[in-house]
Amino acid sequence: MKSNILIVDDEPVARQSLTDILKLEGYSVMSLPNGQAAVEHVRTHPVDLMIVDMRMPGMSGLEVVQVVNQVSPETEVILLTAYGSTDTAIQALRLRIHDYLLKPASPAQVIQSVKKGLARRSAKLRIKSGSVDTVETDDAIQEFVFKDGTIVDLSRRQIRYKNKTEHLTPAEGRLLQILMRNEGKVFSHRELVLLVQGYDTSQREAPEILRPLVSRLRHKLEQFPALAERVSSVRGTGYVYEGD
């Protein structure tokens, strides 16, 4: 069965280009010129993944995503922006957007991001019968339960396994929360410093700030077989939480 993809962009050339790229890959593609039309479409049609331009007349891309998160939370979202910045990244992550791409994105970038987004959606739909069960509260995953009985309780900043309980500091808890809720997504050092510590820093300074925190978190995770080696370094970039 073909995946349903919705493209939302006020530029006709960009819409047509993305449509052609994804139709050639075998997807069912619909394109719309504005956010209001996109929201109405999502309310009445199944959409597996959306590619949304950030800056459009009327509803912005971020406003569209906020509504879609409410009416169709299973829909994965890729944000397109010609104005790449750390602020954009942070806004996107807060809205739990799958990915954001800088315009003009190459066909290879678009296809790769779409494939990852659809794979993430499939994993979420299968998650209850897979290796990890999840409990959602307050519109976000708060607890991860692994096959061996290990529990990661993000709300209490605790990891529990049999008779053992490990407590995380607020910074360790925020870091693990960001990584686990975005399994497979690579975060740069700078993004993580901003998300975890709350301040911006340079690309040069960010790894030095982050390294001790990651080291302490890994030391705690290594005590639990289900979590050991899950937080991986991506050379020259940052970190990623690896699933099964």
List the helices and strands and how they pair.
Elements: E1 4-8, H1 12-24, E2 28-32, H2 35-44, E3 49-53, H3 61-71, E4 76-81, H4 86-94, E5 99-102, H5 107-126, E6 132-137, E7 140-146, E8 151-153, E9 158-161, E10 164-167, H6 170-181, E11 187-188, H7 189-197, H8 206-221, E12 231-234, E13 238-241
Parallel strand pairs: 1-2, 1-3, 3-4, 4-5
Antiparallel strand pairs: 6-7, 7-8, 8-9, 9-10, 11-13, 12-13
Kindly describe this structure.
- With 244 residues, the protein is of the alpha/beta class.
- It folds into 2 domains: 4-127, Response regulator (Rossmann fold, 3-Layer(aba) Sandwich), CATH 3.40.50; 130-241, Orthogonal Bundle (Arc Repressor Mutant, subunit A).
- It is 41% helix and 24% strand.
- The protein has helices spanning 12-24, 35-44, 61-71, 86-94, 107-126, 170-181, 189-197, 206-221; strands spanning 4-8, 28-32, 49-53, 76-81, 99-102, 132-137, 140-146, 151-153, 158-161, 164-167, 187-188, 231-234, 238-241.
- The protein has a 5-stranded parallel β-sheet, sandwiched between helices. Strands 6-7-8-9-10 form a 5-stranded antiparallel β-sheet, covered by helices on one side. Strands 11-13-12 form a 3-stranded antiparallel β-sheet.
- A hairpin with a 3-residue loop joins strand 12 and strand 13.
- Helix 6 (170-181) crosses helix 7 (189-197).
- The protein is globular and about 55 Å long.
- The model is unreliable at 131-139 (pLDDT under 50).
